[in-house]
Amino acid sequence: MRQTTMAKPAEVKRTWYVVDGEGQTLGRLATTCAHVLRGKHKPTYTPNVDCGDCVIVINADKVNMTGNKLETEKYYNHSGYFGGLRTRTAKEMKQKYPVEWVEHAIQGMLPHTKLGDKMRGHLFVYTGSEHPHAAQQPVELKVKG
Questions:
Q1: d(CA 131, CA 11)
Q2: pLDDT tens digit string along 2-19?
């Protein structure tokens, strides 16, 4: 009789991956990163355990969007006060806040629970090609497309 292997939090081995965002499409980059952050690329994937790996995204300011989405895509944020709704286009987010723009896309594909909060902690986004995680010896992760 076979038994399903369930990963335990103490047994999880984390690998570090670095993704170069230069010339990549935002959606494809986000789905690949979210897949690795959740741990779905591992055979020991368990839905209720944070068995994902750490992801470093570099060159976040050089990520693209296809079509006319830079002008039509809108991002909303509310302060909680009356009249506190702030609307920004994707073009404005890319120019002024590229790190938050990429993080928002990736984090939207992770669970919105306490487990998802742990997974979000394993995501690191930087605008340039340099990152301070060289000691972790990250492996390059290719994005299809």
A1: 28
A2: 788 888 999 999 999 999
Output the domain CATH number for residue 110.
3.90.1180.10
Nearest to 44 by CA among 91, 7, 85: 7
Residue found under tokens 């669970």:
111
Backbone angles phi, psi at 11, to 5 degrees: -90, -5
Query: 104 in a domain, yes or no?
Result: yes
**pLDDT of residue 100 exceeding 80:** yes
Residue 85 within a domain = no
Domain containing 34: what range? 15-64+97-140
